[in-house]
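Below is how a single chain appears once it has passed through the pipeline. First comes the sequence as given, then the structure the pipeline wrote out for it. We keep one example in the README because the format questions we get most often are answered faster by looking than by reading.
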Amino acid sequence: MSPPRWRIATSILLLVLDVGQATAWNIEGRVKGGTQGYFESPPFHKDFDSEAELRLGVLGDFWKSDPWKLDFELSADAKQVDGPSEQAHFARETDVDFFRGWLRLDHGNFKIRGGRQKILFGSGFVFRPLGFFDTRDVTGVVPETRGVDGVRTTYFFDETTSVESWLVPAKRNESVVWGMRGEALLGNVETGAVIQYHPKTDLEELADFNQDMWQAGFYFKGEKAVGYWNESRLDVENNRGNHPVRFDTVFGVDYTFDVGEGLHVLTEYFLSVRERQFTQTDLQGDRTVQQLAVLLDQPVGIDVKWQVFGIYDLKDRSFQLIPQIEYYLARQTYLYLHGRWGASLREGEKKGRLFRKSRVFNGTESMLGLAVVIYF
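Resulting structure:
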């Protein structure tokens, strides 16, 4: 029987710490704890979710000899969860796993990195059509993506122009997800293009993990009085000899008004359309999805920042409203008061994409929570 993941993670982390005694390295991490209460928790479910997390990592240089450098990052998470999210199997009661774990060889303009790493691309803030490996919860406190296990190479032609490729094991039939992308600055506009082959995979934490398709997309982002961006993706599915398509796109703008210490307003419009034969993964079975997101945030002094994030589905008329207040206590310690109110403007059955009222916990229930995050 193979050893549990927590023993593997602990052993490798201790090994790196021991090797790191002869290298330049730093220890980083955080402690996170919090609880949130649900106003209408389903029957036979607890009313409160509680979570405790310890993240411990080490990063630094194994070896340097100009222009070569070999550096690394290795960090692991230990989490303890109790409440309806654990009862509904959205989270494990106890989970220890790697958050990051990569080794990178750097030679000036060329870099190659292997291991668990973040591979993100595009201009979207809320919606990310080009976020092939994005696993963050955009409505959560301190949203972040865990990343994937793979190999990535990057070549920089200059400070603003680069090309990148990646290989991610699909863990099914020895197949591999592979892709390439390029980025450049055209005038004052950031631009990029990407192509990827996505076979069926066992990476269940990723969207569309069980579909075989080619994916291509582009993005641009600029600023002229207001910030503006677009990110789009076309998927061509290999489906029983047919090749149906899906198109996802997001348009966004933002602006900071001269109100108080700066009132930042951001909005994004998301559109997804698919042909009838394209694999249906939508909860409602719709072939067209349209959503609108709005974010308002503003600092108050140097210790407080408030934000209100809302997302509305134009088709099924469900929505979520997520307020949050961040308060800096001291010494890299932050307190978060946050909540979520979900509802549907459609009469009758309440089974929207953003709010569902059911007898089983689904994560869209309204709640109020408190969290503390300490970085070190």
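The longest strand covers residues 48-65.

See the next section for the split statistics.
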